[in-house]
């Protein structure tokens, strides 16, 4: 299936502007979402084995999730879940709707299997997202909701902006993410600093702790962090019982072909893999098992997902891999994991690796 996608569909789709293709795919997919037979056919095609894991108190049917940014406006969670994902992250959603940066703002780096985007949190806003989610019903897998800051909101007002969005969206998510790491919102990454972060988190945690159902909060972090900020951040997460998503996109360009050096925005896909894995390794060492970790950045297949688990991730997420490898990638990753687990069991029983 992946072969067919790469040989035929990808060749066609890659002739068009990336965001135009994405919008068209999301429109078609969300139209199909209401068609029960379409959901059933997809489910049959992408039937995956259950590989349950419990992380941050949530039971996931498998540890491979959809990363934020793919379904920014909660358009198609019911059908995206049928691709085999163990969980989906919606957003980034801001309190008020906003347009984001001028287009074009998404670029495929075909020779690197990467993407640069500078979308700038274009989204329908928390109220419309909540309305959509309330009408959709359950996707059948845990739903994360990723929240960001409005571009016209100052850093001083950021805690209130995030908190208000959290309040509006709280009934509809199984976990929440505060995105403080997009390189496309001016000064957003300053929120990694310990005091700023505490000021952002404490009102949100007060709110969550006063709810009947307490839902986990994750912080999505940048791959470009000073050692001091990083250790403070991991300590904050451990003290306050938060999870971390490692990482968002990168602003580094030196390892790319020169033609891409002047493109502003966040880099994802294969050229992000080593950068985000390095950060995951550092975070995992500092966290020493005290913080739930979601690894994201450059997962394109089974081995690249396995690498993240080896470095300490409890769950992984994908985005760019879906664009380059196609929608059956999730199934391939899970098959690889299943085979590895079977190999491990066989080895433990002294039978040697399977030849499958
Ligand atoms: C076009 C595009 C839009 C994105 N939008 C968001 C977003 O709104 N919020 C967010 O937290 N991450 C966003 N991301 C980052 C992804 O969630 C992920 O962290 C990053 O792409 C690395 O994973 P990947 O290499 O599998 O793509 C976006 C990525 C891409 C390619």
Can you describe this structure?
It is built from 12 helices and 13 strands. By secondary structure, it is of the alpha/beta class. It has one domain: Alpha-Beta Barrel (TIM Barrel), CATH 3.20.20. It has an 8-stranded parallel beta barrel, surrounded by 5 helices. The protein is globular. The C terminus is likely disordered. The site of flavin mononucleotide has 27 residues, from strand 4, strand 6, strand 11 and helix 11.
Strand and helix layout:
Layout: H1 2-13, H2 18-33, H3 36-45, E1 53-55, E2 58-60, E3 64-66, H4 77-80, E4 87-93, E5 106-109, E6 114-117, H5 126-136, E7 143-147, H6 158-169, E8 175-179, H7 194-209, E9 217-221, H8 227-240, E10 243-246, E11 266-269, H9 270-287, E12 293-296, H10 302-311, E13 315-318, H11 320-325, H12 329-348
Helix pairs in contact: 5-6, 6-7, 7-8, 9-10, 10-12
């Amino acid at each position: 299936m992946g072969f067919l996608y790469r040989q035929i569909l990808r060749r066609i789709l890659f002739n068009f502007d990336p965001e135009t293709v994405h919008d068209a795919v999301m429109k078609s997919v969300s139209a199909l979402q209401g068609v029960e037979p379409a959901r059933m056919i997809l489910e049959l095609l992408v039937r995956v084995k259950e590989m349950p894991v419990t992380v941050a108190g949530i039971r996931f049917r498998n540890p491979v999730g959809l990363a934020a940014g793919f379904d920014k406006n909660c358009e198609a969670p019911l059908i995206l879940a049928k691709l085999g994902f163990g969980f989906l992250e919606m957003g980034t959603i801001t309190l008020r709707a906003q347009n984001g940066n001028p287009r074009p703002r998404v670029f495929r780096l075909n020779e690197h299997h990467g993407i640069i985007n500078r979308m700038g949190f274009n989204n329908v806003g928390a109220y419309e997202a909540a309305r959509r989610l309330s009408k959709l019903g359950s996707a059948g897998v845990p739903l994360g909701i990723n929240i960001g800051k409005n571009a016209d909101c100052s850093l001083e007002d950021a805690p209130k902006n995030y908190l208000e969005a959290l309040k509006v969206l709280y009934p509809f998510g199984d976990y929440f993410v505060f995105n403080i790491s997009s390189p496309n919102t001016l000064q957003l990454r300053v929120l990694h600093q310990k005091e700023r972060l505490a000021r952002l988190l404490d009102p949100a945690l007060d709110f969550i702790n006063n709810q009947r159902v307490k839902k986990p909060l994750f912080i999505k972090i940048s791959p470009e962090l000073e050692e001091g900020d990083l250790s403070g951040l991991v300590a904050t997460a451990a003290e306050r019982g938060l999870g971390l998503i490692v990482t968002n996109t990168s602003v580094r360009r030196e390892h790319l072909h020169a033609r891409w050096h002047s493109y502003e925005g966040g880099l994802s896909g294969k050229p992000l893999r080593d950068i985000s894995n390095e950060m995951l390794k550092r975070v995992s060492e500092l966290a020493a098992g005290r913080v739930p970790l979601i690894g994201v950045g450059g997962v394109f297949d089974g081995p690249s997902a396995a690498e993240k688990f080896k470095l300490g991730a409890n769950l992984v997420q994908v985005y760019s891999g879906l664009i380059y490898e196609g929608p059956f990638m999730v199934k391939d990753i899970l098959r690889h994991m299943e085979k590895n687990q079977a190999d491990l069991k066989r080895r433990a029983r002294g039978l040697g690796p399977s030849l499958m």
